[in-house]
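Deliverable D5.2: sample structural annotation.
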Amino acid sequence: MTQRICRLWNLSILTVLFLTAYNIFLAFKLTQHPECPKVSTTPRKHIQRLPTPIVLKNAAPTSENSQSLFDINLGRWDNRLEYKYFDNSFVGTQFINLSKQHRTCIATQSSLEKIHSIIQVANHWDGPISLAGFSSGDEEFNNLLLYVLYLRECFPKIREKVNFHFAFPRGNAPIKIQVNSSLLNRLDCDNPYGLLMQLTKSKTKKKNMRWKNQNVYPQNHLRNLARKNCQSDFVFLTDIDVIPSYGMTQLLDNFFMRDNCGTKLCAFVIPTFELDERVRFPTNKSELLRLADKGLARPFHEKVFIYNQFATNFSRWQETRKDGPEAHVSHPVTNFEFLYEPFYVAKDTVPPHDERFVGYGYTRNTQVYEMFLAGYQFLVLSPIFTIHWGLQLKKSRPPWRESQNTKNMKKFKEFKRELLVKYKTNPTKKQISPDVGFALGESRV
């Protein structure tokens, strides 16, 4: 009797185990059925709107908000047939309206490495922005296009305000344009810098140096491209990593309603400071000066190359610690020097940036110097300002940078002779020493 009970008990246990295993098997088969949706274990991402796939061989990709295509076999050439331009490739949905509403448009330029700074620029600036982007070759151009699409899809202020243009060198033009839309649809909108690192990590230090030697960054070409696509009365010419202070757009609107210099030739200088990356962006001039008192902010390039901004006379600007709420002229620039490179707002009737100067050295300062010879007056505004993140220190200059500067120094001699004829004055009156006529604090962007 006992043995029979034991056999029944063992049989029951085997039956339970069999049924359990069978149920597990059936559950597994059900989850693999083609009509059953699979449960994703990946974190939820933010981009869900782009069609898949986006594969374009001769045209830029589009999104819901932009149907502007461009054929890489078209575009327009610069005056020397060295670079090809594509104007208004991705136009902000509110760019035209903002150009009508506001008196000033930001004109800026960048390569892929620093274009993420446009996020903060667009957050601070309420008006239109014209951005010229540079790249070369298939990989670089495709990555730049992907990142621009990412910015437009993830950041509404960029999608609304920014008008994107592109340029690439004739000698290294992209052949096949293919944006990885599958990757784009999986990207996290909360990590723009992480994506940038992913897109640029393929460049080793050696490869990056070779790239900069072979594909010299055409700063002045890009500045002209961005300037000429602004539609507002005034243009604020900046580098991509120069961030406007809060409320600057409206303050400039109000200022130009009261005073735009009339028939005179004026350029309105916006003081630029370096800011320690450990502190938050100052909300006003008083807070900026308190940071400067603590050594957490200082005039742009003060330690790297003081003549870059010296003529702005920051000491005089800092004397008034509590300005009124409206933008006004703090003081005129009275000690102009050739090496002066202010960030300024002016009508786009100023002389163009000379495109013979490519890469480092003699790019912005030659244009500002020609403005001076043409009779422009430089007026420093307050309480508005701009910020460049990081307290910069003097470092050894890489060989490719010094090489570019040497080439531009030779070109300057020809430029100087042309100014002598054009303005019937002697441009050498402001002495230029070969020892200090180098990169002038400019940075590749």
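Annotation notes: The longest strand covers residues 83-90. The chain is about 35% helix and 15% strand.
The annotation will be released with the project's public dataset once the embargo ends.
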